[in-house]
Amino acid sequence: MRIKRSKLVKRFAFVTSSAYESIEFIKTRWHSTASVGDNYKVVNYLKSEEEDLKRLTESLGFKVKDLDCDSTIAAMNSIESGPFICSHNDAISIIGHFNNDGGI
How much is the average pLDDT of 18-39? Predict the structure, then answer.
């Protein structure tokens, strides 16, 4: 069986720390996270898992948002719930902005 290379691309989702801590399934499935600023966690997942992530979060009343880097930073500054999904390069910029360390 061949797996499409695009399905193996790493993606990132920023979720509020409180949402991450309260949803056991997310903590179990995507347990490797890092804190971003004071209010968020970043979850690393594969593109092939994106539909599962969207279904799960939408079933809990959240809307997944695929924003550009600047819009994600603005939303996180406003402590919007997200989750906000993005590419590796955007994740580096966003993490660097909030953690003042240049990113991942």
Answer: 79
pLDDT of the residue at 75 = 96
* Residue 91 belongs to a domain: yes
Strand ranges of the sheet holding 33-36, from the earlier edge strand across to the other edge: 33-36, 40-46, 10-16, 84-86, 65-66
Among 25, 24, 23, 43, CA closest to 33: 43
pLDDT at 57: 81
Residue numbers of the domain that contains 17: 5-99
Q: Can you say whether residue 30 is alpha, beta or left, with left for phi > 0 and alpha for psi between -120 and 50 degrees?
A: beta
104 in a structural domain? no
Number of folded domains that form the chain: 1
The reported pLDDT for the residue numbered 66 is 92
**Domain contains 31:** yes
pLDDT of 4 above 60? no
